[in-house]
Amino acid sequence: MEDIGKLLIVVGIVLVGAGLLIWLLARLPGLGHLPGDIRIETENVSCVFPIVTCIVLSLILSVVGTIALNIIARLLNR
Fold first, then answer.
1. For 30-50, what is the mean pLDDT?
2. Percent of the chain with pLDDT over 90
3. Considering the entire predicted model, what is its pTM?
4. How far is 51 from 35, CA to CA, in rounded Å?
5. Which is more confident, 3 or 32?
6. Which is nearest to 31 in space by CA: 17, 59, 16, 51?
7. How far is Cα 76 from Cα 32, in angstroms, rounded to an integer?
8. Cα separation, 12 vs 41, whole angstroms
9. Judging by beta carbons within 10 Å of its beta carbon (0-12, 13-18, 19+), is residue 34 exposed, middle or buried?
10. How far is Cα 31 from Cα 55, in angstroms, rounded to an integer?
11. Do the beta carbons of residue 48 and residue 31 sit within 8 Å?
12. DSSP symbols for 21-77
């Protein structure tokens, strides 16, 4: 039971971190308005498909994740 408690705490911390990251990224100017992002607006409906923004964020997060995993792997091999 102790392992499950630790796992739940870690998952909770990761979810809070992801929520904060999404909240902060939503406040950055220009995100969702890059060239290639599709925006359809009518009188009553507004629909956004941020294709290019998703690709850019995916590349950035992949690079950051790879660097973080490299650092963790090096620290664990000491």
1. 87
2. 46
3. 0.60
4. 9
5. 3
6. 51
7. 38
8. 37
9. middle
10. 11
11. no
12. HHHHHHTSTTTT-STT-EEEE-SS-EEEE-HHHHHHHHHHHHHHHHHHHHHHHHHHT
Please, what is the average pLDDT of the chain? 89
Q: How far is CA 52 from CA 5, 39, 72, in A?
A: 39, 12, 30
- Do the beta carbons of residue 51 and residue 32 sit within 8 Å? no
C-alpha to C-alpha distance for 57 and 21, rounded to whole angstroms: 12
Per-residue pLDDT tens for 60-74? 999 999 999 999 889
Rounded CA Rg of the chain: 18
Q: Report which residue type is found at 45.
A: V
